Amino acid sequence: MENVKNLFSFIENSPTAFHACANLCKALEDSGRIRLTEGEKWELKPGHGYFVTRNMSSVIAFDIPEGEADSFRMIAAHSDSPAFKVKENAELSVRGKYTQLNVEKYGGMLFAPWFDRPLSVAGRVVVRTDKGMEARLVDVDRDLLVIPNVAIHMNREVNDGFKYNAQTDMMPLFGDETAKDGFRKLIADSAGVPEEDILGCDLFLYPRIKGCVIGHEGEYMLCPRLDDLECAFAGLTAFLAAKRPEKGVNMLCVFDNEEVGSGTKQGADSTFLCDVVKRISISLGRGEEELCRALAASFMLSADNAHAVHPNHPEKTDAENCTFMNEGIVIKFNANQRYTTDAVSAAFFHKLLADKGIPCQHFANRSDVAGGGTLGNISGSHVSINTVDIGLAQLAMHSPCETAGTKDVDHMIGGMTAFYDSRVALGRDGEFFLD
Question: Can you list the domains of the chain with their CATH numbers?
Answer without folding.
Answer: 2-81+224-434 (3.40.630.10), 83-207 (2.30.250.10)
